[in-house]
Specification:
Elements: E1 2-4, H1 5-8, H2 20-28, E2 33-38, E3 48-60, E4 66-73, E5 93-98, E6 108-112, E7 117-118, E8 122-123, E9 127-129, E10 132-134, E11 137-138, H3 141-144, H4 169-172, E12 179-183, H5 194-205, E13 224-225, E14 229-231, E15 243-252, H6 262-270, H7 278-290, E16 294-298, E17 306-310, E18 316-318, E19 324-326, E20 332-336, E21 339-343, E22 347-348, E23 361-368, H8 370-379, H9 385-390, H10 399-414, E24 417-425, E25 434-436, H11 440-445, H12 451-460, E26 464-468, E27 471-475, H13 486-497, H14 517-531, E28 535-536, E29 542-543, H15 545-552, E30 576-577, H16 582-594, E31 600-607, H17 629-637, E32 644-651, E33 653-654, E34 664-665, H18 668-681, E35 687-690, E36 696-706, E37 709-717, H19 719-724, E38 732-737, H20 738-744, E39 760-769, H21 774-785, E40 789-798, E41 807-816, H22 825-843, E42 846-847
Parallel strand pairs: 13-24, 14-17, 28-31
Antiparallel strand pairs: 1-12, 2-12, 3-4, 3-6, 4-5, 6-11, 7-8, 9-10, 15-23, 15-24, 16-23, 17-20, 18-19, 20-21, 21-22, 25-27, 26-27, 29-30, 31-32, 32-38, 33-34, 35-36, 36-37, 37-38, 39-41, 39-42, 40-41
Helix pairs in contact: 6-7, 7-10, 12-13, 14-18, 21-22
EC number: 6.1.1.20
Catalytic activity: tRNA(Phe) + L-phenylalanine + ATP = L-phenylalanyl-tRNA(Phe) + AMP + diphosphate + H(+)
Main location: cytoplasm
Length: about 850
């Protein structure tokens, strides 16, 4: 909202020497944020005066153009020129070349003399052109930056002006005025008016406020019934009537060519609106002044009375912007006997538009439902100054006064006659009283406001305050629809008494117990992976159904995979919540590879969403009452399981390849190692066995189990998946159910005692079937060796013609140690023999 300073001074005691910055500094105190300053003198300066054309000689030119060689008086006749800038004639008569032809000898015009600066840093100086020295310029409104018309220069008589020659044209046109621009929050629509801002300035400074609405005099008793109006929104779509008040008045005998006075045009321009015609300018001026949008219809173009209703099926309307719009059944429209003539609260129709032949107008001021206006504006992508105010809520009491104000100005400025016809249809809905506990402001703000302060503040904003027992009954003013609950009244009290009165006091937190066990374990896992060279990434939990299906289950059964589908996804290609972390992690790989980073080790932890049998609940409990245990149980049953998963991906080389140094290529073993590292950090033991997963390479997939239950997979991605998803070759991943691992982790970890007895090591090499997993044989050997076995490690795998087709040789190092004595070689050999014997029994192993 832009506030011209000359305008705000009419309703407040803002100082004559005050600047826009001064005004904004005061308004900030009551919560209106400063935005910008609009000052014409920032781009317009110098000697700009009223001149009178004394002589005009037409001179055709060789280029086909005809120019006017003019003599223009720029000081009063008989007076001496006091300006001494280079190029200014001391006689007070300037010779000026002008290419426009819309003026005659005797006309008074705006002359920019040498030394003046026009918008665009256009500097005026005496210069030779078309065979003359032109010392100045006769200006158009566009050259002055006060309009778009460039067809001719500005003749002051067209504005109804006859100023003295030599007068300051900038003062005449209001160009010394300036405007402060403020940001208005959605809950304070009343501040989209000079009336509202002036009231806020009064609150900020404690100075008197003149309400412009109270300066308007209406004589409703003397008026006869006017245009017939019916409000037909009998089945309101949004729970309230679309229009609760519709006021019309009529003005006849308007001079459609009457000029808009410069003071009004200047204020409109500073407020961000261009001057169009007297009727339109008056309508906009009243809207800015009072905050009540209004509209003028050409009375001769109306067919019958007016009906406010919802749009009919297939109904169309050409709006004032000359676009045909197909109306929706929810659109509230204003219509006459021939159909819609405007979208209520948004924009009028072209058929009843006021034009340069209009001599009688119907003035409309109404109250429209904010929700209806807001949805129509968005539906038709048609923002307007009217809708900006209606969708925030206008004063329902203001419509008759605004209509009267438009009538008064049209009578005063356009020569019209008040037809004394009035229609006031509907009943305005006024605010209900709010019960306010006088102790509530202190509870919410920490400031001990007295009851006198509370009552005085609420009265100052226009509310009526009465005592009702130990409560205050507060009836908000009609222009404050945002005041609807006690907390909103407390906000007003705090705002107007001053936010600076609220102490900056941090609450004392209760004594904490540190991180929970689960939090500590999660942090140790993340820190451990980071220390191992992995980088953590975060991705959105929204996936395609195909990605969830591919990575979220081991086999494609052909049945739809259970997943949560969003009713309003942020992207149509990602309509479901994730059931696995891998797709988002692989997207991070693709993004890094596309930017040249190919040697990657990334991890991500996040919740996944695994629907159970029930999704959601059949009903949503009502507000304001405890729903009951059965309803809560139903709601809880509809919430999907949300375990925490952790996934990692590796690709490229480690360390990175350098000139002369070949890095080791990362593979599936790195993915398995990352999973085992997570288990080690949590002090749990993973069982790594050969597995199968549709997204993984069939021969390089490890199934990860914990206490016999599968908790994840690790290995190399399937070559087709790598190709389809544009990933680096040999990309390997792992994913674990971190929640399950954390739950299984021991609560306390005791460090193992260091034995003082020496170990005994022995090796064993066994030939087994090619299909037998090494981990299975390792578990068998450990079981057979018994309690003396301290560690077992695979150190060699061999397959070839020497051991037979379909066979492989696995070599393990066994380390034995006793807790209470030094082992003999015979004891170690006996334990080794037991381990081999069990392997022979279970797997048909043959010792090499």
């Amino acid at each position: 909202m832009r506030i011209p300073l000359s305008w705000i001074r009419e309703y407040t005691q803002f100082p004559a020497e005050g600047t826009a910055e001064d005004l904004m500094a005061e308004l900030v105190k009551v919560g209106l944020e400063e935005e910008d300053v609009h000052r014409p003198t920032d781009f317009l300066s110098g000697p700009i005066v009223v001149g009178e054309v004394l002589e005009k000689i037409l001179e055709p030119q060789s280029n086909g153009k005809t120019i006017n060689w003019c003599q223009v008086r720029v000081v009063p006749e008989g007076s001496a020129q006091t300006l001494t800038q280079e190029g200014i004639d001391p006689s007070g008569v300037q010779g000026i070349v002008c290419g426009a032809h819309n003026f005659e000898v005797g006309d008074k015009v705006v002359v920019t003399l040498p030394g003046a600066v026009l918008p665009g840093d256009f500097r005026i100086a005496a210069r030779k052109t078309y065979g003359h020295v032109s010392a100045g310029m006769i200006a158009s409104v566009r050259e002055l930056g006060i309009g778009e018309d460039h067809d001719g220069i500005l003749v002051l008589s067209t504005l109804g002006l006859d100023p003295a020659v030599g007068a300051d044209a900038m003062e005449l046109l209001g160009l010394y005025d300036s405007a402060a621009e403020i940001n208005v929050t959605p809950d304070r629509g009343y501040a989209f008016s000079l009336r509202g801002v002036a009231r806020e300035y009064s609150h900020a400074t404690g100075t008197p406020f003149i309400d412009p609405a109270e300066q308007i005099t209406t004589d409703d008793d003397a008026a006869r019934p006017g245009l017939e109006v019916s409000l037909s929104d009998q089945a309101p779509i949004y729970g309230v009537d679309g229009c609760t008040r519709f006021v019309t008045r009529k003005v006849t005998g308007i001079d459609p060519e009457a000029p808009t006075p410069p003071w009004m045009a200047s204020r409109l321009r500073l407020a961000g609106m261009r001057s169009i015609s007297i009727a339109v300018d008056v309508s906009n001026y009243v809207m800015l002044e009072l905050g009540q949008p209004n509209h003028c219809y050409d009375a001769a173009k109306l067919d019958g009375g007016i009906q406010v209703r919802r749009a009919a099926a297939g109904e169309k309307l050409i709006t004032l912007d000359e676009k045909e719009r197909s109306l929706h059944a929810e659109d509230l429209v204003i219509a006459d006997a021939r159909g819609a003539i405007g979208i209520a609260g948004v924009m009028g129709g072209a058929r009843t538009e006021v034009d340069d032949t209009t001599s009688a107008v119907i003035v409309e001021a109404a109250y429209f439902d904010p929700i209806s206006v807001s949805r129509s504006k968005r539906r038709h992508k048609l923002p307007s100054e009217a809708s900006k105010r209606f969708e925030r809520g206008v004063d329902p009491q203001l419509a008759p006064l605004a209509a009267q104000r438009v009538v008064d100005l049209l009578v005063q400025l356009a020569g019209g006659t008040d037809a004394a016809e009035l229609t006031d249809a509907g009943t305005p809905v006024l605010p209900e009283p709010i019960a306010l506990d006088p102790a509530l402001p202190e509870k919410l703000t920490g400031v001990a406001y007295t009851q006198e302060q509370i009552q005085a503040t609420l009265t100052a904003i226009g509310a009526e305050v009465t005592q009702s027992g130990d409560q205050l009954l507060v009836t908000p003013p009609s222009w404050r629809p945002d005041l609807s609950i006690p907390a909103s009244l407390v906000e007003e009290i705090a705002r107007l008494i001053g936010y600076d009165q609220i102490p900056s006091r941090l609450p004392v937190p209760p004594a904490g117990r540190g991180l929970t066990v689960s939090q500590q374990r999660r942090r140790s896992v993340y820190a451990g992976l980071a220390a191992a060279g992995f980088t953590e990434v975060l991705s959105y939990p929204f996936y395609s159904e195909a990605a969830n299906t591919l990575f979220g289950r081991a086999e494609d059964t052909g049945e739809p995979m259970p997943m949560l589908r969003l009713a309003n996804p942020i992207a149509s290609q990602h309509p479901a919540l994730r059931t696995t972390v891998l797709p988002g992690l692989l997207e991070a790989v693709r993004r890094n590879v596309s930017r040249g980073f190919t040697d990657l080790a990334l991890f991500e932890a996040g919740l996944v969403f695994l629907p159970k049998g029930q999704l959601g609940s059949a009903t949503i409990p009502a507000l304001g009452a405890y729903p009951g245990e059965d309803v809560l149980a139903d709601l809880d049953a509809g919430i999907p399981e949300q375990p925490l998963h952790i996934a990692a991906v590796v690709s490229g080389a480690e360390p990175a390849e350098l000139p002369g140094v070949a890095g080791r290529r990362r593979d599936w073993a790195d993915a398995v190692d990352a999973a085992e590292k997570v288990a080690d950090l949590l002090r749990v033991q993973l069982e790594v066995t050969q597995g199968r997963h549709q997204a993984f390479h069939p021969g390089r997939t490890a199934e990860l189990r914990l206490n016999g239950v599968r908790v994840g997979y690790a290995g190399e991605l399937h070559p087709k998946v790598i190709e389809d998803q544009d990933l680096p070759a040999r990309t390997s991943v792992m994913e674990l159910d971190l929640s399950a691992l954390i739950a299984a982790a021991p609560e306390q970890v005791s460090a193992a005692s260091i034995s003082t007895f020496p170990p005994t090591t022995q090796d064993v090499s066994l030939i087994v079937a090619q299909t037998l997993p090494a981990t299975t044989l390792e578990s068998t050997l450990a079981e057979g060796a018994g309690s003396l076995l301290e560690d077992i490690e695979l150190f060699d795998v061999y397959s070839g013609e020497h051991i037979g087709e379909g066979k492989k040789s696995l070599a393990y190092g066994l380390r034995f140690r006793a807790k209470d004595r030094t082992l003999t070689a015979e004891e170690a050999s006996e334990a080794r023999a037991s381990a081999v014997a069990l392997a022979v029994q279970r797997h048909g192993a043959v010792q090499r």
